[in-house]
Write a structure and sequence with these properties.
Blueprint lengths: L3 H25 L5 H26 L3 H23 L14 H13 L1 H16 L4 H25 L2 H13 L10 H18 L2 H4 L8 H5 L6 E6 L6 E5 L5 E2 L14 E2 L1 E5 L5 E2 L20 H6 L10 E5 L5 H8 L4 E6 L2 H10 L11 E6 L2 H7 L4 E5 L1 H6 L17 H9 L1 E12 L6 H15 L9 E5 L3 E7 L5 H13 L3 E4 L19 H10 L2 H7 L20 H9 L2 H4 L6 H26 L2 H6 L2 H32 L2 H21 L1 H10 L8 H22 L1 H4 L4 H9 L3 H7 L2 H12 L4 H26 L1 H18 L8
Helix pairs in contact: 1-3, 1-5, 1-6, 1-7, 2-5, 2-23, 2-33, 3-5, 3-7, 3-8, 4-23, 5-33, 6-26, 7-8, 16-17, 17-19, 19-20, 23-33, 25-26, 25-33, 25-34, 26-31, 28-31, 28-34, 33-34
Length: about 800
Amino acid sequence: MISFTAVFFVSCAALAHEVLLVRFLHIVYEHHFASMILSLALMGYGAGATGVTLAQRFLLRRPVAAFTGVAIFLSCAQLVTAAGLSRLSFNPLEILWDVRQLVRLAALYAWLSLPFFAAGMASGLVFRARPESIHRLYLADLLGAALGTALAVNLLHVVNPVWALRLVSALAASAPVFLRSGKRFPWALMGVLVNLALQLLVSHSALTPTPYPYKGLALARQFPESRVAAERFGPMGWVTVLESPHVPFRSLSGWSLSCTTEAPSTPLGLFVDGAEPFPLFAKSAFSEDFSFRHCLMGTLPYRLTALEPRNAEDRRALLLGLEGNLEIVVALLEGISYLEVVERNAHVTQLISRLAWGLTPDDRLGRVTVHVTDPRRFLCEHSQHYDVIVPVSLGALSASAAGAASLMEVYEGTVEAFTLYLDRLTSNGCLALPHSLMVPPRSTLRFVATAQAALRRRGTKHPHRHLALMHDWNTALLLVKKSEITPQEQDFIGRFAEERSFDVAYLPDMSPKQAQRFHVSSEGSLAEAVTTFLTARPGELRKASPFALDPVTDNRPYVFHFLHWKTWQRLLSAPHDRSVSLLSWGVPVLVLALAQALVAAGIFIAAPLAFSFRGSFRRSLKPFGIILIYFGALGMAFLLVETVVIQKNVFLLGHPVYGFAGTVGSFLLWAGLGSLASRGWVRWLDTQRVLRRRNKLTLTAFFAGFVVASYGGAWAYLVPWAQGLPDLLRWAYAVVGIAPVAFFLGMPMPLGLGFLARTHPDLVPWAWAVNGCASVLSALVAVLAAMTYGFLAVLAAGAALYGAAALSARGLHGSA
């Protein structure tokens, strides 16, 4: 007999593998693709359940042997698919013009879903073999999934991702040990030996994720005699320091083209998950007089705040993020007395302290304090005020805005974040945002709109008089002052720009002649666009622009997502060689993944109907329609709600891995407990005179939707407040606070399967497949909907789908 413990171990291994895939995909590509991982995992579950539906007569003859084979296949697939991940040659940058990338995306999707196909077969098989214990088996499945997410995160703290993957694979192979059968020891021995053989055959280098050829580390490894000088692994990322003795690293962002001083160079470059490098400068990289800093646009905010005599001494600055050590060196050389740095990844700070200059007291450059935490959380927990605040990581992300950053939830760039920055400035303080200049301009205009909205939220009467903007050929610097920019300060900014051949794009009292003096754009004047945006007719500019330029909020924190329907219209009318610049590859990958998931879901749902139930068609189609609506609505709704909770916990816990693992683990834990309590819930409904004769599935699904709409909406709304809580209470809010929602969402599914097992037991695996396939679509639809309408709208859609499931449940025979 298949035991609850065996189901627990299979589910634990499958969900741990799912979390590890977040890290693997972030290393290989530009984004963690958490939504796509959810989708492909659920597609695998749906396909596995479909396989059980088609082959149930064969599988039920020897269910223990079948379960053992599936567990062994799961353990092998985890290793084999990881080994092939970097060899599928999928390049997301070419997906807009190369049809072959569509095929490779489909191949990637199908390949990575193989382990979850095995897990889906295991779940479907055990539900079909033991229908009388579905609620307990569902609990074992969800509890295993909850433990698997926690296991994966903790393994990443101890070992690198490859060793974590090997341990998870061994865990899957050990599941047959817990079968309740007289022949379990031969089955268990077989699983262990097969897994051990494969562990020895697949080399460590084959399992190591390799960045695709156009990522920064992959390109830098081609430099002659380059070598890895240091390496760290963890849930926050894979941090690598590469030494290149012949091709040095430089930082030329915001560097004046009229400057005759040689830019500092270094043989050391720091890469996080293989992305673009950040130079690590030793003291010897700079000239003795440090004259290089006079060429940098980034020195302006420090010199501007030093104009006021009382600010000349005892000045404080805050850097949000570490992208190398150049920002630290510049801030301290410009007279900052107390510099505080906030960085999420402890490994980044450790390597910069050890290999670069400026971060430790021994460097004798200045007083620097490093905080390893989330930037928003740091500002909520501390009340210190600063003369200069620089969101370094936000500006660095703008360099990849044409790629995966369009899919990222960037909470450092929302209206709420800008408001918090302004609250932490001194009366004459300045927020400085250096960022990459896009053509046509998008991110710059969005940052301007966001700063304007934040100033208005604080009650500022004339926001345009608090802003200044300058740029060169590829970098822009937005200044947001807490007080109005005085004429003296405007003159200083104008002279600073002219001496270094930078263009002023906006000052409150600037002359049109000051714009486009050194860098002329064929796409129109940035100064004219910003002036129109701030002082004239911002609504007309937004309507005329092919991009979405509205300020973003915490409800829709996709700072670098500019796509809307006008973009597609302009794309179709623009010449082919210019149309690509209008798109970012992140959204097309998501849309194409949704299209192929839709096709796959249709096949997996229709296949059993075509091959297994031809006799049922002659009898009645009604059960199939009701099952499709009820279990499909549950699958869609559950993932819509879970996706919103994941994204909110990414913000609350400070990183995608923590948000994904913390949500999936706790959500499935509470849903499993709800499954266990589902029969007691039905018995309680029977004791209520008013509810006794009502449909139990209808009442349960309606109540689940009500809890999502009321309690779930309130929980999501209060997440920004919870971010200021101490660590223990913040994790409690993320894990325990969502318990009422997940608890009641865990009831409709096992109750529906239980009622179905009484009347149509052969349809139980198909209902599981319908649920999984609907979830495939929901994971991707949720992200696209959130990018357009916001998280609260997605949550409302989830509640409405539970209402649709409740209405369809009235036709499910036996549910009364």
